[in-house]
Amino acid sequence: MQDNFKDKAASWDKGSTRVNGAKTIADAIQKNIKLDSSMEIMDFGVGTGLLGFEILPHVSSVLGIDTSAKMIEQLHQKNTPECFIESMNTDIIKNPLEKTFNGLISSMTLHHVEDLELFFTTIYKNIKENGFIALADLEREDGTFHSDNTGVFHFGFDADILYKTVMDAGFTDIKIENINTIKKPQRDFGVFLLTARKD
Prior knowledge:
Rossmann fold, seven-stranded mixed β-sheet
C-alpha cells in the first residue's frame, strides 16, 4: 500500500485552512443529516481525524479508515479516553469491510479514489438501511489545487457526472451543494458536500 502522505502527515494540521475547512464540512453535514448518539460512523480517508473529531461528539462511534499509516499515527496521538476514534490502516476498496454503518463521512478524499464506480458500489454494502453518506470534495478544477498531483486521480468533480455515479450505485435522495471556497494565490477553489441515502 503506497503511502503518498507519509511526508505530509506530521504537519497536516498546521495552519488554519484544513482545520477550518473540516469544521465547515462538519457544520454542513449536521445541517443536512440528523445525527444521533446511536450512530456508528465510518470516516473514509480519516487522515489526522480533523472531520471525525468534529462529528464524534454527536454520534456513538467513529471508525477512521485510511491507506496512510503515518496519518493514522497522527490520529492516534490526538485520541483521548473521552474522545477516541478507532482506526484501520487499509484500503476498503481492495479489502472491503464486512461491518455496516449508519453513515459514512469523508473530507477531501474522493479525488484520491481512482475507480469511483467501484468505490460507491463497495461502500453501498457498508451502509445500513436508511443510512447515509456525506462526502466533501473539490468542484471541477484545472489541476492546480495541489502542488504535487501524485495520487490525485480527479481534478475535482463535475456534479452531474458524480450524481449519476452515485445514483447508479443504488443511493437515493442525492444532493450536491457548494459549502466552501478555498482561496489560493492562483485562484479560488469550490468545495461541495454530497449527501445521499440508502433506502
